[in-house]
């Protein structure tokens, strides 16, 4: 198996009655001037009715003597036909809190066991285009604990994820390097790195 | 006019033959094990054929004596039926570079004239769901210049954007405050703030 073998073979229209995961909606709305207009929106079909959030992104930090390392993943993504650099993430199951989903997904996708330290506001991925959103959950991992000595992901048979780490302090340079190597940068990773870089450069 | 008057009136299915801006695609791909699978993807119809990027997000910093302020916008977004807190942004016109689009959109949406200082890698908004992407363009604004004394946005008649600024150093707290006030936080703003906060807290 190699993620670099993955490849789009063909792309075609997806008829409404064949779509199981996503859909297009026509939104009729009143604009700030009181005029009625329409907007086109894309949505997931999977958001639990009990939740206002689709999923979680996990900022999992390994606290090493050299400084914090962020856990990242390489994953082939058919919509972009590229291997994407992402934080661990997942959809929230019905009945689960965002924090429970984060701890579960982190363990399943990376094998690491961590403790939630912060929950972000709900962040909207592209609110002019779609309604998908997530909370970023911060998870602290103590690499000296027995359960983190030999982390073993438990992936489903259609999940192909390669886990790696990068120093948080130099993540912006790492993103540029990874793009130059042909990887796609997920917005959460890129923008987080951008914030770190601004704070360092501008001495905030 | 008031953005808080805007409201979704109804949401219904959007038939393929009525969709002008977005579409669903069925992606047939070979997975890393060599098996053929399908994936459902949402896409914009507007990406210029000459470009591999949909748009730009603009991190525009006003350099004030008290420190850098980031330019933000409040904008009603029908897909989420909320007023969203976003960086200035826009689609790239055919024949335009990302940097040209950033300077143009910043001037149109906020009235400010600035200088491009950095271009990010391409960032993918939600690569398990859609192919939409952007580059983040950093723009530096000198508020002492004559052209920035009384910035006047030039909005189209269906654009309703309120411009404001926030100190970059405390953007994370500002995001939490804005969410508590009922605003939706765009992922670019929230994750950038998160990176700044990590760098400050962890002394990166």
Mind explaining what this structure looks like?
The structure is a homodimer of 204-residue chains. Chain A is of the alpha+beta class. The first copy, chain A, has one domain: Nucleoside Triphosphate Pyrophosphohydrolase, CATH 3.90.79.10. Chain A is 19% helix and 41% strand. Chain A is built from 3 helices and 11 strands. In chain A, the strands form 2 sheets. In chain A, strands 4, 5, 6, 7, 8, 9, 10 and 11 form an 8-stranded mixed beta sheet that branches. A two-stranded antiparallel sheet of chain A has the order 2-3. In chain A, strand 4 (55-64) and strand 5 (67-77) form a beta hairpin. In chain A, helix 2 crosses helix 3 (187-201). Chain A is globular, with a radius of gyration of 19 Å. The termini of chain A are far apart. The relative contact order of chain A is 0.17. The mean pLDDT of chain A is 93. Strand 1 (7-13) of chain A pairs antiparallel with strand 2 (22-30) of chain B. Chains A, B: Keywords: Hydrolase. Chains A, B: Residues 51-188 form the Nudix hydrolase domain. Chains A, B: This is ADP-ribose pyrophosphatase.
Which features does this protein show?
homodimer, alpha+beta, 204 residues, 19% helix, 41% strand, two-stranded antiparallel ribbon, Nucleoside Triphosphate Pyrophosphohydrolase
